[in-house]
Specification:
Blueprint lengths: L2 E5 L5 H13 L2 H9 L2 H16 L3 H32 L5 H5 L6 E9 L2 E15 L2 E11 L8 H15 L4 E7 L3 H9 L3 E6 L6 H7 L3 E7 L1
Parallel strand pairs: 4-5
Antiparallel strand pairs: 1-2, 2-3, 3-4, 5-7, 6-7
Helix pairs in contact: 1-4, 2-4, 3-4, 4-8
Length: about 220
């Protein structure tokens, strides 16, 4: 499969937004799995089973844990679906204006020919940030289509950002990613990124974040 990494064009918008939406929502299942396998969530589930059993109600044995599990899934879905909706409404609505209007910003897509037809199978962006007298780059919006994973494309896209920042004399590249995305975290570490901060300050309400058991990792690579 021939792959070309090139700057975003306005005609790519629909394909890029679709890839972004699908990529974000793929985090829901691993988020739910991580939450439900945590000691606290397991304890709550078992406690609700026990309460239903002690009440002598077969319906209670099923309904009480079912409501709890449904609530946790709703929170995981809401966390990522609302993020996707907000970003599609804001910065992804005008990619040229938000990611290509300054010389030190860029948005790339990976294009592959599938059945002789070009398709967008990857994306990544970088925004220049000023920190005192130094500039650094923030890696954003990296998503790879399922059909092109485990082929080295993610590493190529991330390296495109690193090379772009090096050419401009940036001091480092930074990014943020969430704890359920273990494959992405492993990839970034392999490319020389290190976790420098973890937090739970997310766009969602605090109780949703607490039930999702999601942590945000800030990672950096010094250049």
């Amino acid at each position: 499969m021939q792959l070309v990494i090139r700057p975003f064009r306005p005609s790519d918008k629909d394909a890029v937004c679709t890839l972004f939406s699908i990529g974000i929502k793929e985090h829901i299942s691993p988020c739910f799995h991580n939450a439900m396998t945590s000691p606290f969530h397991r304890a709550v589930t078992l406690a609700l089973f026990a309460i239903g059993y002690l009440l002598g109600s077969n319906i209670g044995v099923l309904v009480l844990p079912g409501v709890w599990v449904g609530l946790v899934y709703y929170c995981c879905h809401e966390l990522y679906a609302s993020f996707a909706k907000e970003k599609l409404r804001t910065d992804m609505q005008d990619i040229p204006g938000n990611y290509q209007s300054r010389p030190d910003d860029c948005f790339w897509v990976a294009e592959a020919k599938v059945d002789e037809r070009p398709q967008i199978v990857g994306m990544v962006a970088v925004l220049a940030k000023q920190s005192g007298n130094e500039k650094h780059g923030e890696l954003l919006r990296m998503f790879i289509s399922k059909s092109c994973r485990r082929m080295g494309l993610g590493a190529r896209m991330a390296q495109t950002v690193v090379d772009f920042c090096k050419e401009r004399g940036f001091s480092k590249v930074e990014l943020e990613t969430s704890s359920p995305v273990t494959a992405a975290i492993a990839l970034y570490k392999k490319l020389g990124f290190n976790v420098v901060l973890s937090h739970t300050e997310i766009h969602a309400t605090s109780w949703i974040v607490a039930l999702c058991k999601v942590t945000i990792f800030r990672m950096e690579k010094q250049l």
